[in-house]
Design a protein that fits this description.
There is one protein chain. This protein has ten helices and four strands; from the N terminus they run H-H-E-H-E-H-E-H-H-E-H-H-H-H. By secondary structure, it is an alpha/beta fold. It has a four-stranded parallel sheet with strand order 3-2-1-4, with helices on both faces. Helix 4 packs across helix 10.
């Protein structure tokens, strides 16, 4: 099955890589071969997964992997995991697709250890790159464990995330782990706009911050209010 190096070899090496074009050419190759690869999709949250799944499910067999130890506090993590799981169930019911869901244990200590010394970095800086690396590498390891064909992430659907950095991280992990990364830029083709419309249509909770305590503080959010709101949300869903 094709890997992105074959696509890059046929592109102009002197131009900035258009990762959406790379993705589309890989999809075209799958369709010509008559295959639907198994893709492990790291997801940061339900809303970001909406438009991404809509693009992937017609060309691949998709399992969503929820691994986000950066999310703080724990109640907020549990709320986002619940929203992701419930969205997939409703999406499958409405569309007839068979998207699977996997959730990792909540291990915030691993995140704080990974970003130690980078606490004061600005949003979008070195701390965020380490966060991308941690989550995407976990997805790559799970992909290898479960014998998937590719791993990728929903992170490129956000206009607040640098897709070049995310794809650079994916390429480095591929080389390190010896597995196949699926490059993307899911925000292209109105991906983010589609995600906001789908999130509204499904009535999904949209979080006001990326997830980490540092980003929340930089936005002036009161995490105690976030915790209380998340706990109230979960209490309302208890038993469902």
């Amino acid at each position: 099955m094709i890997d992105f190096h074959e696509v890059l070899a046929r592109m102009n090496p002197n131009q900035r890589i258009n990762y959406d074009t790379v993705y589309q050419r890989m999809v075209k190759s799958w369709q010509q071969e008559g295959v639907k690869p198994k893709v492990l999709l790291h997801s940061c949250c339900g809303p970001c997964s909406t438009a991404v799944l809509d693009r992937l499910v017609s060309v691949a067999e998709v399992t969503v992997y929820f691994f986000n130890p950066n999310i703080h506090p724990e109640a907020e993590y549990k709320r986002r995991e619940w929203v992701q799981k419930e969205f997939i169930a409703e999406y499958n019911e409405k569309t007839g697709h068979d998207v699977h869901f996997l959730a990792a244990p909540y291990e915030p200590k691993s995140y704080f250890e990974a970003v130690k010394g980078l606490e004061d970095e600005p949003e979008g800086g070195a701390r965020c790159r380490v966060c991308f690396e941690q989550r995407m590498k976990a997805a790559a390891e799970k992909m290898k464990e479960l014998d998937f064909d590719y791993f990728t992430t929903t992170l490129t659907v956000s206009p607040h995330k640098n897709s070049q950095v995310i794809n650079d991280v994916g390429r480095e992990i591929e080389e390190e782990c010896g597995i196949s990364y699926l490059p993307t830029d899911f925000k292209k083709g109105n991906g983010f706009l589609t995600s906001t419309k789908m999130a509204e249509a499904y009535g999904l909770y949209r979080q006001p911050y990326c997830g980490c305590i540092f980003g929340a503080r930089s936005q002036g959010l009161d995490l105690e209010d976030v915790r209380k709101d998340a706990e109230a949300f979960l209490a309302d869903k208890e038993g469902r």
